[in-house]
Amino acid sequence: MHAHLDALKNPILSPLDNPHFYANNPSAGIRQRSHQTISTTNRYLVPFPTSIAGNRCYTDASTTPDTTTSNTRQAGLGVFIINMDVQPPISIFIKATMQDSSSIIMAESAALAFAANLLNQFQCRRSTILSDNQQLVHFLNGSNNFNPPDWRIKPYTQIAANILSTTNLQVRRIKRNQNQMTDSLAGQALQALRSNQLAYSSSCTNPSYENDCPVLRAINAVTINSVMVLSASCC
Questions:
Q1: Edge-to-edge, what's the strand order for the sheet holding 170-173?
Q2: Domains with residue ranges and CATH for the chain
Q3: Would you tell me the crossing angle of helices 154-164 and 104-122 to the nearest 10 degrees?
Q4: 12-21, 47-56, 114-123: lowest mean pLDDT where?
Q5: pLDDT digits (tens, 9 = 90+) for 166-222
Q6: pTM
Q7: Facing residues of 97 across strands?
Q8: With 0-12 CB in 10 A as exposed, 13-18 as middle and 19+ as buried, what is 88?
Q9: From CA 104, how far away is CA 176, in angstroms rounded?
């Protein structure tokens, strides 16, 4: 603790933070630009998502890799929510499908739009959507939400952008290895879609809700174009 306080009072500049370093080392500008690029890339990265208070909502999608053709294909969507504002915490698992995805970012935009709409239904005090798609996260946090990187995703990014502008909801990025639960949910949803196992199922084992689960009611109230929920569970 004392060492930390001393460091705050007398910060030691690293070469990257010391302007004299660049004056005496012209070639160091390359390293400065590299440092700035890394900082921009990690701008919205959350190293430890479990430290986030409130609702943590993880989203992901599973589909075939993008190709040069514009053919649509099936995709599985996964949404995993942990509400830390209640005790005991509530966990929500959602598997959904999309029949006409044209790209990976389109499927992930649809999953994120669904999650944003659902969290808005909950009217929670604080919520964070976590995605491992850097391009999507940076776009939704940018100043211009009217020109998406792929125009086919605009219906979904516009839903998310509209909700973000009127709520305390925020979108942040996590690493792929921190998004394994939703990756699994999305993969299971895609497999069910390919096997034509499309019967909807839901369950709630939270004793606080008894026979009337507000979470499942909220999920049923969310409608996103081309997205169909396969299963939802609250526990």
A1: 170-173, 127-131, 55-63, 73-83, 90-101, 227-234, 201-204
A2: 14-43 (no CATH), 51-234 (3.30.420.10)
A3: 30
A4: 12-21
A5: 999 999 999 999 999 999 999 999 999 999 999 999 999 988 887 889 999 999 999
A6: 0.82
A7: 76, 228
A8: exposed
A9: 14
